[in-house]
UniProtKB/TrEMBL annotation:
Residue ranges occupied by any Saccharopine dehydrogenase NADP binding domain in the UniProt entry: 4-114
Coiled-coil regions listed in the entry: none
Organism: Actinomadura bangladeshensis
Protein name: Saccharopine dehydrogenase
One Pfam family matching this protein: Sacchrp_dh_NADP
Length: 304
């Protein structure tokens, strides 16, 4: 792997992808519409690209990492048809489902696309795999104080329209047992068995009002508040429960965990089977321990 292009590489997740690739990939290119911001990313070459207008036809790369949530399906197809590996951190199932349809294109060109990369989906998929495909409940606890880019905020608020039933899950210390609301993370649709995924925030008060915010999710003041008001910390935890046991992964800065997970996937692309895969089809049993060694914590405990 000699040249990797990170689309949206100057955002919160993209910068962490670059940090995880630095020293392992000879040339890292940070691409986006704002070359001035791209130049602020250490150890990377800046490139201006407007995915809505330019696409990815002319990208010279061994692999492309999509952190921009813009034209994902078109960019994936353009990369895979030319034999360029593709890694996507999107949590949107409709997007991933369309990219899955490119399996034949990727296999024919000898390229690999890896989906469900990040924290949820991603780490959650790998924790669930340890239960052998059994029915599972997944809880995702995010820090309301962490700053996220406009794409992440837009997707989260749009997804409030699909908020479903609530249940209780036990997270690792210091969080304890919390109420989670069913949320449309893609892993509940792509993993085997009956799986449901719930969301909560580190702030119990904000978690309680999430269902009430559903009707206002498209209001500009609410979107501005989510972008600029940070009422919480930057800690996170994901917990996967099945058969009375829970496996967990926790730490600080969800964007860092997502970016480093994507970087580890890129570093495993050489030798990966061609076609469209999800992270659990590419990452071996050493993946989570290696990721956890970057300052995160793996855990296992009783669900009760």
């Amino acid at each position: 792997m000699n040249r990797v292009v990170v689309l949206g590489g100057y955002g919160a997740v993209g910068r962490e992808v670059v940090a995880g690739l630095r020293g392992h990939v000879p040339e890292i290119v940070v691409a986006g519409r704002d070359p001035a911001r791209a130049r602020t990313v250490d150890g990377a070459t800046p490139m201006r690209i407007d995915l809505r207008r330019d696409g990815a036809e002319g990208l010279d790369a061994d692999a492309v990492v999509m952190c921009a949530e813009t034209e994902n399906v078109r960019v994936a197809e353009q990369c895979l048809r030319r034999g360029v590996h593709y890694v996507d951190v999107s949590a949107s199932y409709p997007v991933l489902a369309e990219i899955e349809k490119l399996d034949g294109v990727a296999a024919g060109a000898g390229a690999t696309a890896v989906l469900s990369v990040g924290l949820a989906p991603g780490v959650t998929n790998l924790l669930a795999r340890e239960f052998g495909g059994a029915d599972a409940e997944i809880g995702v606890l995010l820090g309301a104080g962490e700053r996220h880019g406009p794409s992440a905020v837009r997707w989260t608020l749009d997804s409030l329209g699909d908020l479903g039933e609530s249940w209780r899950m036990r997270f690792p210390p210091p969080y304890g047992t919390r109420t989670v609301h069913r949320f449309p993370f893609s892993d509940q649709y792509t993993l085997p068995g009956r799986v449901r995924t719930g969301l909560c925030l580190d702030s119990r008060a904000l978690t309680a009002v999430l269902p009430r915010l559903r009707r206002f999710r498209r209001a500009a003041p609410l979107r501005a508040a989510f972008r600029h008001v940070h009422a919480g910390g930057d800690g996170f935890a994901v917990a996967v429960a099945s058969g009375g046991r829970v496996r967990s992964f926790a730490g600080r800065r969800q964007s860092r965990a997502t970016g480093l997970a994507a970087a580890l996937v890129v570093r495993r692309l050489d030798g990966a089977p061609p076609g469209v895969r999800h992270i659990e089809d590419v990452a071996g049993p050493d993946f989570l321990p290696e990721l956890a060694a970057r300052g995160f914590a793996l855990g296992e405990y009783d669900a009760g």
